[in-house]
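Predict the structure of Haloacid dehalogenase-like hydrolase domain-containing 5.
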Amino acid sequence: MAVLRSLVAVRAAPGLWWRAARESLGLRGRCPGRGYSVDAAQSPPTFGFLLDIDGVLVRGHRVIPAALEAFRRLVNAHGQLRVPVVFVTNAGNILQHSKAQELSALLGFKVEPDQVILSHSPMKLFSKYHNKRMLVSGQGPVVENARVLGFENVVTVDELRMAFPVLDMVDLQRRPKTTPLLRNDFPVIEGVLLLGEPVRWETSLQLIMDVLLSNGNPGTGLATAPYPHLPVLASNMDLLWMAEAKMPRFGHGTFLLCLETIYQKVTGKELKYEGLMGKPSVLTYQYAEDLIRQQAERRGWAAPIQKLYAVGDNPMSDVYGANLFHKYLQMAKHGGAEEQGASGLWKQRPSATQSCASILVCTGVYNPKGPEPTRPTQEAEVAPFHGHRDFSFSPGLMEASHIVNDVNEAVQLVFHKEGWAL
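Done. Here is the predicted structure for Haloacid dehalogenase-like hydrolase domain-containing 5.
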């Protein structure tokens, strides 16, 4: 977390070539018109794409038409990608292979599971917690997802509620009709795993608090809440996300905000995380970078991947994250970042990646007509900061390298910059 705090405090300063290219193509500060043409001969790729899903490729269960156009450019006549592509989503209430199948059906080409990064995928790196008994919160296949990530001993919120029925008291219809016997045989919980937004927020908030305040023994009570509390690992910090509705929907970041606020109010102390995964976490981008490298090696592309282009619709998660990772790459190049990266967990071969450019599309959360997210002033009305508490506000990190209408224009822009034929 120290690495993250130090990185986010530095204002992003994209290279001059980004700004010059943006100005020459008329892309500064608006969603531009369509169409670029390139006559240069195609060469092996030295760049790759990190593509967000919701708001970029799909809205709810509907594919965005521009995504189909984009993949007609990205996929060759043999159904193979012309450049390495990884899908980086903050969704987490689905299995990795299921998400790959879903994308394959929507986009019309085979997406492999190892091309998909869910918000919690980097939790595979947190091996010190894999054998601990963890309370897991979320929805969908949470137990299976936890086991795929390496967690061997998990208990769900529903299982905990069934073991201690008197803990869940908000819904009058679910309150026990009689007082059950107290259990003293329930194994101690050693940590909390937050994989995504749950269905019954009041139940999950109450039981997670019970576990933290009781030091993993929710059937008992402690006179003083332990602090530091049990380890908490969380993924997906998005406050909002875009589905079919006209306005954004609550994301897992909203649930985390509720939990943090309740914990602070009850204990007077700050809820701490052992790890925060998903965009804009540097660890998520390191994970994606490694998958891009592996994909290029499997395809036999000898030239190293030097540039990444991250396409997203959310300034706080997609733009902030890509710019934060770009800043990390620059610091690492000059020896200013920790060798192992965020959280001291990442171990990989030396990186050839030199830059990560952020491309913001107008098909999701981002509204080009809305106010810029800056610090409030008395002179002007501005948008509030939607980022997570542990990621400091930094206007430079929320400035996209490029703003385009949609993902198809994003692909055209990158191909133009790289001298590739459309």
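Residues 126-277 form a domain with the Rossmann fold fold (CATH 3.40.50.1000).
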